[in-house]
Write a structure and sequence with these properties.
Elements: E1 5-6, E2 11-12, H1 31-47
Antiparallel strand pairs: 1-2
Length: 58
Amino acid sequence: MRLYKLGAHTKTDIKVHLVWIPKYRKGVLTDQVAIRARDVLRQIVLEHEIDIITGCQL
């Protein structure tokens, strides 16, 4: 069963695929920067009631 968000005149089912690849695939998200980026993304997800289906492990 699909979960739709309902509005006054709308029904939505939005999916987003986010890929973070820096130029030349240089490893910029390492150590504390990676942990902080992950925590900020999780906080934003919780505030906007978004579900993360899968994600990479650090």
